[in-house]
Design goal:
Distance between the termini: 35 Å
Strand order of the largest sheet: 7-6-5-4-3-2-1-8
Mean pLDDT: 90
Number of strands: 8
Largest sheet: 8 strands, parallel
CATH superfamily: Glycosidases
Shape: globular
Strand content: 5-15%
CATH class: Alpha Beta
Helix content: 25-40%
Number of domains: 1
CATH architecture: Alpha-Beta Barrel
Length: 350
């Protein structure tokens, strides 16, 4: 009997460890980052994600090859609706039904689709805000028409520097949305609260630090908590990332929506830059930021406003993107080169 008890305890311990490990894995994800040459096939991408214990994947375009490759993989997908499609989908329920039937219903549940992100960084950056909530509502109705309501959540992503401003994280407890986006943001928050959907935030301490180097500490932008995250603000925060997230919580509270959770749909740090950015866009800084971010997310520490709460987080991006335009840093957010070798080592397990 004693040996049997030991055996049962051992089995239970192994089972608990396995469940715990799966739960931990499911909180870290990556964005696809596919604007590159000679990139691996989608089947190779799935194998790469599994080999690195990455449980979530966000795609910006709807490609049948992606849905097929991820079928029965168990990896959670976040699927994007293109910003250019918002006006069409918001004005015609049939268009929303067609989009859901072709891109979601045809592949679910074999392909584990968890979220639909309607548009990308629409408010404060584009002129499509007037169509955003209409498109979200029509996609939600289309899910109901397909008998998928409650199984897949609809939201939209936001660039924090566009909706709260670059200096807001100096005092997270006083965070608010900029006047430019407040009216449309209120409608977004009403939709999220009604449908039990998360607020999707793209949180880049790199951009906040780079544009305001005199106001923030580089170590804290890199998730190395050793001093206040900013030089003139709230001393409670020793991480700029945490300060930025709590600023959004405060902004939502200020609009009477205190209970909406946040999913960080993008975060990362470039590993190479030119000119004045060369000093901060380095492999060592990228490794430090992403490694420390993963450790924090998997620790379940949460934030001062949401202590002990897990926070789904997606790192940008899986691969370097040599075909991307803009600043040189935009080409170097990848965790891996096109040949699947790591740009720098990152551990996705606790």
């Amino acid at each position: 009997m004693g040996q049997m008890n030991v055996f049962l305890i051992a089995c239970i311990s192994i089972l608990c460890f396995s469940i715990h490990g799966d739960a931990q894995k499911q909180r870290i994800g990556v964005n696809n980052g596919m604007s590159g040459t000679n990139l691996p096939s989608q089947e190779e991408v799935v194998a790469l994600l599994k080999a690195n214990n990455i449980g979530k994947y966000r795609i910006f375009k709807q490609e049948p090859s992606v849905f097929k490759a991820f079928a029965n993989s168990g990896i959670e997908l976040t699927v994007g609706v293109a910003t250019d499609d918002l006006q069409r989908i918001s004005s015609n329920q049939n268009e929303a039904n067609k989009w859901v039937n072709e891109n979601i219903k045809a592949h679910y549940p074999a392909t584990n689709i968890k979220y639909i992100a309607v548009g990308n960084e629409v408010l404060g950056k584009t002129d499509k805000g007037q169509f955003l909530v209409g498109a979200m509502n029509n996609i939600q109705t289309a899910l109901q028409n397909a008998n998928l309501q409650g199984k897949i959540k609809v939201s939209t992503t936001h660039a924090l520097t566009d909706i709260i401003g670059p200096f807001a994280p100096l005092n997270p407890s006083k965070g608010s949305f900029t006047a430019k986006v407040q009216s449309e943001m209120r409608s977004v928050l009403q939709f999220l609260a009604k449908n039990g959907s998360p607020f999707m935030a793209n949180v880049y301490t790199y951009f906040t630090y780079d544009s305001n180097r005199d106001s923030y500490n580089i170590d804290n932008a890199l998730f190395k908590p050793s001093a206040p995250a900013n030089k003139n603000g709230d001393p409670t925060y020793t991480s700029l990332f945490i300060a930025m997230v709590d600023t959004v919580y405060s902004a939502m509270e200020g609009m009477s929506y205190p209970n909406i959770p946040i999913v960080v749909t993008e975060s990362g740090w470039p590993s190479h830059g030119t000119g004045v950015k060369a000093s901060i866009a380095t492999i060592e800084n990228a490794r430090s930021y992403n490694s420390n971010l993963i450790k924090h997310v998997l620790s379940n520490k949460g934030t001062p406003k949401r202590p002990g709460k897990s926070m789904e987080t997606f790192i940008f991006a899986l691969f370097n993107e040599d075909l991307k335009g803009g600043d040189e840093t935009e080409k170097h957010y990848g965790l891996f080169y096109a040949n699947k070798s790591p740009v720098y080592p990152v551990n996705f397990t606790p």
